[in-house]
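Researcher: I'm comparing several assemblies side by side, and this is the next one on my list. It has 1047 residues spread over three chains. Same procedure as the others: predict the full complex and return the structure.
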Amino acid sequence: MPANLAEIADRFNCELRGDADPVVTTVGTLSGASTNAITFFANPLYRGQLAGTNAAAVVIEERYAADCPVVALVAANPYATYARIARFLHPPVAPEPGIHPSAIVAADASVPESAQVCAQAVIGPASELGESVVVGPGCVVGAAARIGADTKMLARVTVMDRVEIGERCLLHPGVVVGSDGFGFARDNDSWLKIPQLGTVVIGNDVDIGANTTIDRGTIEDTIIEDGVILDNLVQIAHNVRIGAHTAMAAFSGVAGSTTIGERCVIAGAVAIVGHLSVCSDVMVTVRSMVTRSITTPGTYSGGLPADEASRWRRNAARFRNLDKFAQRQITLERRMAALLEAMERKPDD
Amino acid sequence: MPANLAEIADRFNCELRGDADPVVTTVGTLSGASTNAITFFANPLYRGQLAGTNAAAVVIEERYAADCPVVALVAANPYATYARIARFLHPPVAPEPGIHPSAIVAADASVPESAQVCAQAVIGPASELGESVVVGPGCVVGAAARIGADTKMLARVTVMDRVEIGERCLLHPGVVVGSDGFGFARDNDSWLKIPQLGTVVIGNDVDIGANTTIDRGTIEDTIIEDGVILDNLVQIAHNVRIGAHTAMAAFSGVAGSTTIGERCVIAGAVAIVGHLSVCSDVMVTVRSMVTRSITTPGTYSGGLPADEASRWRRNAARFRNLDKFAQRQITLERRMAALLEAMERKPDD
Amino acid sequence: MPANLAEIADRFNCELRGDADPVVTTVGTLSGASTNAITFFANPLYRGQLAGTNAAAVVIEERYAADCPVVALVAANPYATYARIARFLHPPVAPEPGIHPSAIVAADASVPESAQVCAQAVIGPASELGESVVVGPGCVVGAAARIGADTKMLARVTVMDRVEIGERCLLHPGVVVGSDGFGFARDNDSWLKIPQLGTVVIGNDVDIGANTTIDRGTIEDTIIEDGVILDNLVQIAHNVRIGAHTAMAAFSGVAGSTTIGERCVIAGAVAIVGHLSVCSDVMVTVRSMVTRSITTPGTYSGGLPADEASRWRRNAARFRNLDKFAQRQITLERRMAALLEAMERKPDD
């Protein structure tokens, strides 16, 4: 959807500095953008690339605009404005309404005419799709599921019985929503499965990455609130609640019955154990293990950075005796104190 | 399957204390159960919720029964008894025997009349399904696989050639059983694939979570013994053996040729390296890395809990010099000893 | 494909020591091989098993050949030679050309006669398969994808729009290539999706494990170079580049825009954060977290081995105060220095 810079500036509330006429058709990186592309500048580290850019225009903050060698589109939040422009120039593919002849749709499922059900998809009895829903190739929707308008399951997504998904969500390939929670009672030496009778309720505008899994609740429901974004290979256990607009990166997992607040940012490979509560506006950095509830907004860390192997090995070996070293230090401190005391007394002897 | 409390008590060997007549239809949590629901009390932390419960009855240990404000169903292991009652009130959906017309079943595959093969499933040549097996929508079973009676593959499960699965197993969506082990020989700068000629043999009553992967053995087989329970996103490498009734939580992985004993509990995000042996009755806590064989039952840990970021950063920085600090401490200790010795000698001078 | 030892030795450039006539039909382990099987000896730890082997022949280095109790096939790299022999005796199943009637292939997709498209597969418009490509059961190939000759997608693989895959690659079940990168701009309290307009380009001879996910690039492409091998459940984020012949084990992930060099070995559960550069010939050991660029080839570590739980707990508790202990040690060192100086001065007093 090509447009000239005047139209772009107008539509996305940017202040145009420079020639309004060039037509842009795409977006690009600072260093790679061609003369028909728009790019953005958000990180001062890339000042060198800004100077050499061939882009038609750069979305940029006021304070850096003077450094822009091409047309500047001045905006308060260049990255967000860029996102909107990119989506305008490259709109998502619109659904092609209809049910592919190879799809298997239960007789009593509700599929509006605006929805698209792709090849080899399966839709179970009593399930309801909203307007313009896309059920991609190879997706499986169980019984009595409800999928809100404009939600897209890209391919090979599984949505189990009774799961509810809001509007405008995007589910990537391999996602599983509504698998059983990992609930078992010990029964002598065996495990006895606890029936997982709840379901999963997902809000609006939720983005779920490839091969991510979200378990149904045991009795009550697992809840994913509006605007949550989950990366690939994330695990959400039964009875968890993820607050609105929280982000979780790949390999992060939340164990059973834990509640995460709103607007949290959980980096990759973070393990959050069960039955905790993490308040809103918490950031947890990569590879952290959260074992206690967090009640104060802020940043929490738990990962040790890799080091050259031989040094790491020596340090790790010392770690095994850290408590002993600490005790020895306390002993040393006591001896030193006694010594100093003795020496102070000496002159008085 | 509604029942009155007398019938429940009788069927599940509970001692009934209170009115035998009320009919229950479902289960609930202590705090959320309605008057037609059964709940359980297993954790003294929830005493407050017990006092306020509206449940028809509570499955409870003798020692807490006096605190139960409603009908008590006294049992030695309330959680296990609850699991049985929940399953009785909410029995798993029975298979609907038959092969869906969209399923593709090889001419020489063996599918008993009691089995259910759902829409879009694929069953390869010479594979054999037991009685009442369910092959869910979109599942793929390769050639010469054997699936035991009453085993259910819920949806989009892949079982590769020659894999053997026991009876009453439950495989969640996205599970892959029998993918190639990650075996490669270095050949100058390249990797040369080692053919993975073994298969996977899974016992009875095994539960496998969504998107979990189990690789086939290189020459001999990967073995999952009876009653093992695996959460979502678990990885079992080639030639591994997991002992009976062992549990593994999400993101846990066992590398090639390692043997895990019986009744172990491996928490989430635990990495167990290859060619080890872990004895029976071992518990490994969250985010641990097991790099040596474990020969003594007990609990093993390896995860550091997250901390407020600025403090964590300071501690992590010190960790990089832990060995140097330990050496300096040893020096200090020697000096202190020398000093004390010198001072003791002094009076004799 | 049976062969006698003379033929094997000749075909794979081994020096035959012993009887040339026995016919071998398969491979086996040192301890488990039967008399019609070939095995190999590469690890001196298994000397005991070598002495007792019943194999027809052992592929072995010159320096150990004298210890071989059966026919020796002397080779410089026994494991690689074994891999070749195993593949010769057990060649991969050849494709059965043709499109299964249940597969859905877009009218303008290009599928050569030598290719095999299995049951329930879907191939999108304008996609092109090379000669002898296998698209396994339940696989989904999007629009305008290109798959090189002899590449196999085993089952339930998803390859999204415009992805390019080279020749002789092997994609295991559940693999997702070309899902959107996890790119979002903050927009007040919400996240605004950044359109992911690039794609994924995969070289030749790449092996991708079950349920592994590879995201498409934001503007430019995510690149996996020739000969890369990825285990199960690996995550490759947008705009990442993985250099030729690099290996990554299960649960390893590379965050956005990071470049990994050639011939690296990334062990399991390694987290590599975004916007880094890791040079060629780097080995990263299990459970490491890489937070800075690595510019020197070598081995890097970051995982602490699990310990008996009570000792671990004491050490972990001390870790929370490591910085304070270090400061206290520095104080002690100063006092000690002052004391020693004072005592040295004393005699001069």
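Model: For your comparison table: Chain B is about 15% helix and 30% strand.
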